[in-house]
Model the fold of this input.
Amino acid sequence: MRTLLLPLRAMVDTETTAETPAEGEPKDKRRKYLTWLLVLLMENGKETLSGHAQDLVEERIGLGQFHDRMVRDMGDQYSHAAHLGRQLAGSTAPFGQWDMMFGQAVAALSSIKYLQDFVSDLNGQRYRDDDGNLKADPVLARAALYAGLALGVANAAWKQTVASERFVWHTTEDESTCDTCASRDGQEYTRDTCPSPGEDSECGARCRCWIETIDGETCFVLP
Ligand SMILES: [Zn+2]
Done:
């Protein structure tokens, strides 16, 4: 499944350097293009991560290997998400060390915050049928959820890069909106105090809230 990431990586690397709409072209064209790349990255990530779950359910890999592959590919995916976020904020430096460190740091943190719970649930009875076998559907679905964090990572990188230091939070109301997100609606923050969408909220990877600088620049908002 990992091979799926390779053509995408090549595409993200070449197209964002060689074919990104040049400066002077309408800004929203560039935004649309970067949003499209982010959506592709997330779709691809879902496929890759649920592939590891499939390997686990079908006993081709053990829990330790499953965890390590998840962290590795989340790191990969989040690094590219960080690159896209940085580009949305106007940075033109090619994919590099900063993106990799940013992405891998979030993957390591997500492992501690969420993935280790998943692994212990997989170890217990929660996902097992009467014969003790893992149930494929919920396991694959939960693994795929981690790909959704890429949006939050891209927006965290955007927030770190964009020129303005002051931000306003906008809560998106849907069935996954949590109380934490709801309480942030319309709040003003500095770069240091502003949470990134999906960060420290119960809706986590499902969060579709967004932030805006006080000059009206917005982070990624998925269609
Ligand atoms: Zn939210």
In short: The two ends are 27 Å apart (CA to CA).
